[in-house]
Amino acid sequence: MDLRQLECFLAVAEELHFGRAAERLNVVQPSVSQQIQRLERGLGVRLFDRTSRQVALTAAGMRLVPEARAIMSAVERAAAAVREDGGSVLRLGTADVLGERLDVLLELFGRRLPGGSVNLVQVSPRERLERVRSGALDAALIRSAAPVPGVRLRPLWEDRVVAAIPAAHRLAANARLRLRDLGGLPLRLVPREDNATFVDKIMASCRAAGFEPRLGPPFTGLQDTLVEIAFSDGSWTVLYEATGRIVSTRRIAVRPLDDPGLSVTTYLVTGENPGPAARALLDACAEEFTAPAAPVD
Q1: What sequence ranges are listed for the domain HTH lysR-type (predicted)?
Q2: Which fold has domain 83-156+265-288?
């Protein structure tokens, strides 16, 4: 048994799909399959039941999951302990356009950990969660996170959701919109696998407003998607309010949505046993957000 085999095992156990596990690890699928086969041979047990349609953990595989996570976390802690100034470097996964809130948090972090430095990493919400769980990140800021094993979520603040539509569309004449106004237009969302909690929330809100959303092409990136919406006959997307405030093109109209419940929580995500840098950030959050909701396991 080696660490690479355990890393591949955990990726497959969490994805229950060899292809997605390979994509997450940035390797080809046969490499993941070979590592799993070697691990199974070394342990003398089957870890997965495989069919052409699905992958499932065996009883032995389910027993190995918590042990493998503990081993990988211990390895990462050991690496941080011997790394020069490792405890004073905050490896923080960030979301798009956090604005002055991020500046304030990092200033407070600096006061809590004098001499500390920050390494900001911007990857998808799913990847941020995975990296915190594996120990590759000390903490992450994530909107619309759902509880997952191996991490703790601390609610920080709420962001309203706004709509972005072509400025030339007749609906842009309204100062505010409701979701039902947009029901006839294609909706562009990020792929569900990248942010399932957010996508599910928007889809459920549309249904609560009385319509099944017509999904258009996926939201690929802020600039590209907004340009394509601006030159479309009529499509729309949803943005966090902080993001909407920085949209500068005159071809896009950003409008508040009056539907209830259209706000998204931003969470601080840490491991179950945060190191010094993550603890300093937790203290900074407690100082800035004096009455947060209870942490979510």
Answers
A1: 1-58
A2: D-Maltodextrin-Binding Protein; domain 2 (3.40.190)
